[in-house]
């Protein structure tokens, strides 16, 4: 595929002479507009159109200077760097592109910034994040299921096809998410993904990770204005919005991939192949160069060309694209996809700049690492990353997820069962700030938690109890609150079934209590009870400051019972997880260092009162979250 691009570029240069004669034109300028008042005053305008690279730009606008023009081997590009000083007033810069014979005009708007009041709020351990996949949550506007001129439409029978979920569907159900108590919404990517599909090999791009335009919401989800409405409405309701971004790759049908600015815009797939996914090679002191390249410079999949962020034009483009979305829509946070796959130096610089411009903002990097050291390496100011500082506040806590998924299902032993969770958390000294870890029992890439615990309600509640009460920022994947499972489908679409009730004509509407009761009867699962459990825990946690930032102290599991406390000067919570599928007695005397002076604990979800001294009886797989008095 790369060879084709290179040949294409060669063709351009061979035609350079005749191209000179062709009239330059402007088809696209990115970013579409910019602002006055960033710390980083320079902005790169990517100007694209036939032979625009054969022009020179000039303009006259008080407070704005031309820094430089950069041409690439493709004459259809001109990169114009402006310096927008604080002296500039909002308005329109008329740019003149002159090829020596004629002049093209382009009006470029610079705006005043709106400020961060009620926007750019960041997220932290006081939040509970609801993750949803826009194509799979709810179809609020069937009139945009199929867009003339876009490659793929809706096919409800094909698992890898689009299902028609959209922004209107999310807006229609914000009340539901709010009622659950969620304080933040993380959307899987909303960028245009106008990609050809091949369902036979599972290549469907409903998930949004193969952008074809990084300044436009996919029209099958809605418009950029619809996204603005979603952000504003969510924020007015007290819910933050976290946007999913990808800087490692775009889709093969991205407009700039179809007309590459330069061969070094992306990595050559014929040289580096597809990624090994071995992101440990980034910090492995013994990693070979070829292994590093096979991770960082290789393509994620055939449909996702790997961007070369060492090219400063690419780096500037991506950093500005981020600032544009934050400033334009006022989003509160970013979840950076495949955070470990671009050059780590670039990721650090990107993160530093974003947080420098937006100090109240937060970013979680998807660092899907197998263990605590390789995860902790990625957190800001890490003591174990040598000279490298990622600047990244939040990391995805896959080690804790792995410990939960294994620990709930295996026989207890010296380091297995709930002890696995205990050991994993005991390595928190490696993190700069484990309170900022995003913690979860599943997400869009993982087996549904209902399947992980084989639909066992006790284990299901135990996993949720854990992420709601241990350190970190809990994230709930849409449908987990109704025990949604994969219905025997063991690929990605199985993890992302449409939410029942989100589609016109759905027989069961699980957005309502009646629907959840009905769904539970049909599946033989405590669907409504689980929803109420999640709802109760979320609302309780929102008001429980001791869980947000209190200290954590835990005890060596005995008989597969894991006990820990969250405590501060004002409150104390005791969590007891009975990992055994049998009734057990728990002698409370071992916990006297934290129970002294308290007499009773009241379970948050059931109201059951237990004495904090003597011995208590635990039901099989019982989880207790006790507010201590
Ligand atoms: Ca739709
Ligand atoms: Ca890469």
From TrEMBL:
<keyword id="KW-0732">Signal</keyword>
<dbReference type="InterPro" id="IPR006047">
    <property type="entry name" value="GH13_cat_dom"/>
</dbReference>
<protein>
    <submittedName>
        <fullName>Glycosidase</fullName>
    </submittedName>
</protein>
<dbReference type="Pfam" id="PF00128">
    <property type="entry name" value="Alpha-amylase"/>
</dbReference>
<dbReference type="InterPro" id="IPR014756">
    <property type="entry name" value="Ig_E-set"/>
</dbReference>
<dbReference type="InterPro" id="IPR019492">
    <property type="entry name" value="Cyclo-malto-dextrinase_C"/>
</dbReference>
<feature type="signal peptide">
    <location>
        <begin position="1"/>
        <end position="21"/>
    </location>
</feature>
<keyword id="KW-0326">Glycosidase</keyword>
<dbReference type="InterPro" id="IPR013783">
    <property type="entry name" value="Ig-like_fold"/>
</dbReference>
<dbReference type="Pfam" id="PF09087">
    <property type="entry name" value="Cyc-maltodext_N"/>
</dbReference>
<dbReference type="InterPro" id="IPR017853">
    <property type="entry name" value="GH"/>
</dbReference>
<dbReference type="Pfam" id="PF10438">
    <property type="entry name" value="Cyc-maltodext_C"/>
</dbReference>
<dbReference type="GO" id="GO:0005975">
    <property type="term" value="P:carbohydrate metabolic process"/>
</dbReference>
<dbReference type="GO" id="GO:0016798">
    <property type="term" value="F:hydrolase activity, acting on glycosyl bonds"/>
</dbReference>
<dbReference type="InterPro" id="IPR013780">
    <property type="entry name" value="Glyco_hydro_b"/>
</dbReference>
<keyword id="KW-0378">Hydrolase</keyword>
<dbReference type="InterPro" id="IPR015171">
    <property type="entry name" value="Cyc-maltodext_N"/>
</dbReference>
<feature type="domain" description="Glycosyl hydrolase family 13 catalytic">
    <location>
        <begin position="131"/>
        <end position="541"/>
    </location>
</feature>
